[in-house]
Amino acid sequence: MCLSDRGLFSGYTAGPFYDEMFSAQGCARSHYARLFEKLGVMAPTQFEDRRKHADLSFLLQGITFTVYSDGRGTERLFPFDLIPRILPQAEWARIEAGLSQRVVALNLFLQDVYGKQLILKDRKIPSSLVYSCRHFRREMIGLEVPHGIYTHVCGIDLVRDSSTGEFLVLEDNVRTPSGISYVLENRLVMTRTFPEAFQEHEVLPVNHYPAELSRILRTLSPRTDPDAQIVLLTPGIHNSAYFEHSFLAQQMGIELVEGRDLIVDGVVVYMKTIYGLKRVDVIYRRVDDDFLDPLCFRSDSMLGVPGLMGAYRAGNVALANTPGNGVADDKAIYAYVPTLIHYYLGEDPILRSVETYLCDRSDHLSHVLSNLPSLVVKSVGESGGYGMLMGPSAAHAEIEAFREKILADPRNFIAQPIVPLSVVPSYDSAARCMAGRHVDLRPYCLYDGQEVTIVPGGLTRVALQAGSLVVNSSQGGGSKDTWILRGEC
Amino acid sequence: MNRFHLLHATEFIYDGPVYESYNEVRLRPIHDDRQSCLSFRLITSPASRGSSYKDGYGNWIHVTSILAPHRRLRIEAESVVLVHEAPVPEPGSMPLSGLDAVRADLLEEHFDWLAPSAYVPYLPEIAEISKTAEAGCDGTVAGFAETASDFIHNSFVYQKGATHVNSSVRDSLALRAGVCQDFAHLLLGVVRMRGLPARYVSGYIVSGSATAGTKQEEVIGGQASHAWAEVFLPGSGWIGFDPTLGKPIGLRHIRVAYGRDYGDVPPVRGVYKGRAGQSLSVDVRFRPALDDSGHEQIAEAKSESDHSGGSIPERPQQHSQQ
Amino acid sequence: MLSRIADSLFWLARYIGRAEDTARILDVTFHTLLEQAPQPHGVRWEPILSMAGEETLFRQLYTEPAAHNVFEFLAFNPDNPSSIMQCITKARENARTIRDRISREMWEDLNSLYLTLGRFDPQEETAAGPHRFCGRVIFGSHRFHGVSDATLPHDEGWDFLRVGWALERAEMTARLVDVQYRNLLALTSAGGTPDNHQWMAVLKSVGAYEAYHRQYHAPIDPARVAEMLILNPQHPRSIRFCVTEMQTSLRAISNTAPGSYANEAERLTGKVLERLRYSRIDEILDDGLHPYLTGLIHQFNTIGEVIARTYFYYAGVA
């Protein structure tokens, strides 16, 4: 089954990048063959109809995120592309093993740096690097966390390198990763929009995520009370991920609370109900460390709960994820994750990382400064595609401005070669045709202290601008449903 | 050896009702081989539920919470402390030139005590003082720290009210003046920039009248709450320097908490709800706990809305919907 | 149930109710004005503005109370906190903060109302007249009631919604009768003759016109209109009916048996209801309708505050 004037795909070429759907010869890869057959015969108008239907469905449900670029938040749809990202199960199995290994190692690292600090004493990673991480929380040192779990929920960003076809880890997100609601909603909308495609493919389900998360949260409860009260703490309606917070709370059947709904009396957390105070046992918090407890962290925070860390320290409430996790997803620490995997697990990393230059190492710095136009430079503590320089597409002035920034604060920057991301055919609604667009993949990993559970697939983010490598929703990215096909290799 | 009974009262008066008030209190004197904290008691009025823990630097932190509306909050810390002889640098202290060889190791061991901090950024003016101190000292790390401390003592004017509780060294450098907090911060900057780890010490200085058998001496500024710095001298360990007094650390310095700078160790820091302003007064009293001659002398230092109370930012009240 | 959620449900209902009431009054007044022969003492717009409590703001924003200005102000103006669009926006904001606690259908219904109304072009609508827009608002409010009734568990949350609806309606009916009665009486004493159209407008604006005729089989009479809107036990917009609803819901929340009360909100509601039950319209008119209604509005405000204190705000433990 090859590309040759097939309706929707007429004029489609993969370009110089790894195409997830078509081989270099322009033939559909075996795990895409049936879908290609189906879409190939579809008239563009028919496809357009389904696309509109899907968009309307997102709009009516209010599945939006908030952008604050204009100073007064605007709700926007996270664009959804109807062509799924398909991976065969065998390839997924390797990804899954690699992610599990990574999550366990990151958790052991967090236990260690906030505990005995053996890895620092053994000089495997500079303690100055750890202590200088913006998100390293001295308040967490020596604090015993429930079951020793730090990384309850991780979102690890993967990219496929076009030059090798191999999946690489691009970034770890172990603080409060978001996006899982899009995975679940995308699947729902997809099954409604293309029901027939699901009849022909055995797509591994994803909808057990809320139940699994809820189970893990329940095991954290300090009280064995069957009525253990679990809540999701949100910064509120103005947060860009608010939809996800309310979605997850509803799916898990737990209370969605804001900081002002909670109160600490002594070292016990309560929520304010119409019938008085009710004790809270577990908080799945989607509020950043900085804002979690104004007594302990930023005193100007109005989103948090004063005294919360005291209750946590006393073991009367569990928090997920654990405060202080940001040290593990610092982009400079990222360069050491292979070391962590060796150190804690005695294993080789299953998934490779992208080569990374640390600007506070003088040998790396000189390399970075002389190769800025070919590198991507990232600010270590940022996420969401902010504070980045994309060398190849940046203007001279922008590069020079970044050079100044790097020299002023080298510890704050790392640089990596540009990874030529793979592409997946995506619908270009302006040109009304299919075009290859770059994608990444963020699987969501849940850790209960024993095992890592990963819902098959994850969020495929797609850079909808032609040629763009930036997939973040805040930077014009969209998403796709991700299918792992049972039995396909 | 000196033995003191210490009463530190902090009182907030609000001009309206406040509620859901939480405070972190760092008032429990350090207990180690140089100082014994024989007893400690913390009382709040209105009564509060509390908890306590030891932070990563070994300081005791007490957390109080008062939910019901109140217009006044009094926090009283009472302790009995035994102060032993302070250590002095070992003779034959390491030469300053030897620091370069251990620079990387010191950074690995003492990152927090070497890195620039919010109150103590690395500034060219501080590097200047460091150079001056280096030129004027005997070439050892101990001599350098002492010279730096003396230099700050002699070049800056102790001036109550010159700076405020949130002032960084930038302010005192500009004014060439400050209070003990600023003097301590300056010394931290000077020695850190030369590669010596140093930590901020929050504590008390007991005025002469409270030490039995010693001659009445004036405590600068009449303040009991005090701050100075301890410098890590390779070969000797942590040695205290008091750039405010310009004298060695002695039996009248009581240590309460260690931090990178003042920001880590304010005696009382908290948040509350309610639209109300506040005024603060702090009252610290000492007496020799066991006076051989049977006399009881009380030294008193009183200050209003001063450094020692810490900053209490207001958390604006949440709005009800209308 | 979290206090904040109860608070949001209560206000969600109030804002929807407020939008509907404003739409009704706007629509009816506009069409009454159309049918009215030009006369110096005819129905005017000012009372409507004073009913919405935004007369001062209106004068700051517009030069004259012309129909299109009033419509624009009450329907769309984002600077008017009581404009229909603002009420719907606030209702949706409240719903959004609790969308995990309301049914998916309720959220989607309200969100789609918000999106639909947002597509109306203020200029085009102002030219076309309020009927289409107001009709959509009134229908949207009714549909939201229906969707809520059919999809939300009838637990405390449902009762807070009902309290919000009932309190908003009771207050709005009181304001409507107060303002219109004064207006029409002033007209009479000034020598004008308020005709049936104007009293019909009052009844129509609360959807009680047909019910009035079934009840009284008689020509429209101001005292009867007042009786219908204040004391009628069956009509869903009469004050007595609404207060009965409030009492039922408040008791359901606290699980209190009839004949007793568990908190101040219930005591005050019960007191108001007893007065409504045992009053006759001629007594009320003799004592003065205006002070009577002003008193009621004041008590409704107090009840709203007491409900908030009892259930929504936590002010420290005793």
Would you summarize the structure shown here?
The complex is a heterotrimer of chains A (489), B (322) and C (318). In chain A, helix 2 (44-61) packs across helix 6 and helix 3 (89-113) crosses helix 13. Chain A is of the alpha+beta class.
Account of the 3D structure:
The complex is a heterotrimer of chains A (489), B (322) and C (318). With 489 residues, chain A is α+β, with helices and mostly antiparallel strands. Chain A has a domain at 356-417: Dna Ligase, domain 1. Helix content of chain A is 30%, strand content 24%. Chain A contains 15 helices and 23 strands. Chain A has a 5-stranded mixed sheet with strand order 3-23-22-19-18. In chain A, strands 13-5-4-20-21 form a 5-stranded mixed sheet. In chain A, helix 2 (44-61) packs across helix 6 and helix 3 (89-113) crosses helix 13. By secondary structure, chain B is α+β, with helices and mostly antiparallel strands. Chain B folds into 2 domains: 2-83 and 266-309, Immunoglobulin-like; 96-264, Roll (C8orf32 fold), CATH 3.10.620.30. In chain B, the strands form 3 sheets. In chain B, strands 1, 2, 3, 4, 5, 13, 14 and 15 form an 8-stranded antiparallel sheet that branches. Chain B has a 5-stranded antiparallel sheet with strand order 11-10-9-8-12, with helices on one face. In chain B, helix 3 crosses helix 4, helix 3 (124-136) packs across helix 6 (180-193) and helix 4 packs antiparallel against helix 6. The longest helix of chain B is centred in the middle third of the chain and has 15 residues, at 141-155. By secondary structure, chain C is an all-alpha fold. Chain C has 2 domains: 1-152, no CATH class; 154-318, no CATH class. Chain C has helices spanning 3-35, 46-51, 55-61, 67-76, 84-97, 104-119, 122-128, 131-151, 156-189, 196-205, 209-216, 222-231, 239-254, 264-277, 281-287, 289-312. Chain C is globular and about 55 Å long. The mean pLDDT of chain C is 88. At the A-B interface, helix 5 and strand 8 of A face strand 1, strand 3, helix 1 and strand 13 of B.
